[in-house]
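Translate sequence into structure tokens.
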Amino acid sequence: MTHNRNFPILPPAERELLSINCASYPRKRILIIQLKVYAVLAINIGSTSTKVGVFRGETQLFVETRNHEASDLSPFQTFVDQNPFREKIIEQILQEKGVCLEDIDSIVSRGGGTKPLSSGAYRINQVMCDDLLSGRYYKHPANLGPVISFDLANRIDCPAIIFNSPVSDEFEPLARYSGLPEIQRRGGFHVLSQKAVARKVAEEMGKRYEEINLIVAHLGGGISIGGHREGRIIDASNAIEEGPFTSERSGSLPIIEVAKLCFSGQYSQAQLQKKFAGQGGLTGYLGTHDARLVEKRISEGDKDFLLAYQAMAYQICK
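Result follows.
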């Protein structure tokens, strides 16, 4: 098939080509490209929340977020154990919103802890799911998003993809130095939200994302701060291993004291990893990761809650 060079060439699955005769110009043929409007299910599994949205084309039909208390997640020993719990929540949301899974054309998930990738879109397959469930690169509930998406997509025979994975690697060479030859810094942060916000800011500035430089902070159960230069995140704090402490993560710690803790005999490796990412930060200091509760206690005059909250803000700024 030949295409008029004045029209964009689109993948066959994304176009319908209609050739019609014009009454005024019977010898002319006009090519019309009619885009199909797809229904997309978007899934974002965070450390303390499950977020689901359905879009038709660029129109948001709904977005629903379910926040999880520490008591909801404490029965699960590993992130993999949360899989049935998270998938059930997604199915419940769709049922409550009256969405039939068979009406979905494609599923897109927040990425997880795969091997380092370039930013962009990747189709989910069994190899990716096996990597995510093994926790070979990272152990985080976000790993379940692609796994659940792949399961749902297989039920209805539609594509499932991830976009701007948290392990997208655009670091400059200098950013990889940790200070110890045996350890190389690696990406592991909120690439999807950081790039989305950066593009929105660029649009508000009347520029392209690839034309500006920004510092972007993502604040959630994990916190990451990234340096964006002309469309690439050239350095960022790893949201699990470093940076400020968060509602449930310890962030960067005094290394000598960490070494002492590791060899104290009080904890296994798994217990310490859980303590650093899951039981640290506000959870460790205050017994909760719920910022709403923290702010309520502050408004009631609790000075311990105020000081811990200010310390988190101080570390973010620092």
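Note: The domain at 179-317 is CATH 3.30.420.40 (Nucleotidyltransferase; domain 5).
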